[in-house]
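User: Predict the structure for this protein chain, please.
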Amino acid sequence: MSISRRTFVQALGLTLLTPFTVRSLAGSTSGAYADFLLGASPQGLSVDQQGQVFDLSVASGDPSETGVILWTHINPDSYVQGQSLFVQVATDDSFNQEVFSAEVLAENINAERDYTINLDIEGHLSPGNRYYYRFIYGDVISRTGRCFTLATGNLDNIKMAVVTCQDYTTGFYNAYNHIANEDIQFVIHLGDFIYEYAKYEGFESQIIHPMNLPSGETVAMDLTDYRYIYREYRKDRNLQRAMENHTFIITWDDHETADNAYWDYDRDTLGVPHHPYTTDPRFGNNPDNLRQLRRDAQKAWIEYVPARVKVNEDASHAFEYLSLYRSFRFGDLLELYMTDSRTYRTKEPCKDGNAWQNFWCTDYENKSQTMLGHEQRDWLINGLTTSTAKWKVWGNQTLLAQLAGTVAGIELVYANYDAWDGYQWEREKIMSAVKDSNVSNFVVLTGDLHTSITSYLKVDYGNINNWDYSNLVGVELMTPAISSPNLQDTVDQNIDVGSVFKALLNGGVQVNNPHIKDFNSAIHGYALLEFNQNELFWTVYNIDKKTDNPDTTKKVYKKFHYEPVDMWLTEQD
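Assistant: Here is the predicted structure, written as structure tokens:
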């Protein structure tokens, strides 16, 4: 008989808490997490180095103090009906000091989950430790993965990588090979883990990994397409190495569904302004097609991303089916809040009129404009303003700081209403709450724009004084894209980025936005983030993505130092 994770923990007398923090169990009765029997520990005969059985290798995600999510995928060609999967966890890579072993019953491995296995071993490990894990299927052993649990109590230092935006069709994952070799424990992924494109739009002449979607369309149309894309991305050996060596904490952005995704509250369905379901007369902008597309995108994400989230398979509405915003506590040093800015957001403003109407549009100021939805927003504000951790960190998707054309601090036009400039009432509400509550050591991590940015955060960007402490809130650190085309790539491809972006790229970013300390949209790579008790270091690496060379030189673009006491961000030599 299968003993479910929930039943086992309840037998130990542990309490099930809110699903929105990883210090609890995943709030799911859906089968999203595999059931297992404790104690089984068979011996495999050969390690699957070539990925014939475990074709997408192994991964870990969403650490807690006493557990982690372990993930793998069985190659359908190697699937044996009725055959169980086994997992072993040890404190050494020789597995002589085994601390956990279990049998994942065969009923958990099936086409319904596309042969993916997410295993939640909450409650079975110890805080602040490194572990090694592997799976066994038949007589074959997976490659060994390494995972980490969250520390408790006093913690003086933590170092992690921050990544985002990894389109596979236009670039090589050389950055991930370097990340795999970093002396870190965790990787924070801020979204766009996949792109829905068969070929990245506008860059068709530069495609190196074309996707042949099962639907035959140019973008993902259903669950089969999304699964295909995840499998193709996860086949990359550099990405596999990074996910084998470090525990990932992942949220999503728009391209896990479709470009500029939002929720159309008027029709109660997904809004995707550039997707064929919206634009192609064949599909008639049918809301049922769009609802199903969101469900398919959610299901594929749950299957292929190792994350401890709330899933309700009985729910018909996207809001109730999946809740993925959650928090992580790293001892007394840091608390991380990972948000979801796509599921609940309203439509991007000032896009429906002609150019003249859109120029004079001020809908971005409306209280009805929301990026997070009121429940998630209240959860975030409450967490940030009550946390006792030294550092309060927000894992955010789109640029929070203002990016605009200005005169003497007066905004004339904004560069991107898909970012927080299109949701200014909510941005000011969050920043004011943080400031009014005297929250110190506040840091926002951001992706999406395929650009390296360091910026001060303010309540009022009309106040251009970066030394007015009554207006300063914290800092925002944006990591460049792993591989997705950046703004310079786009300009070089003769693609129109809009008059505002074009003007800003010609040296106008800091002049128009003095709160932005550094802006570079001509590099790819990742960033390392190191927190100490009284300072942080942000190091941005420039990694070539155009040649297939995992050992390409890792170049330091810039290194920044931040002292929160004086709220002072400086560039280091």
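DSSP finds twelve helices and 30 strands in the chain.
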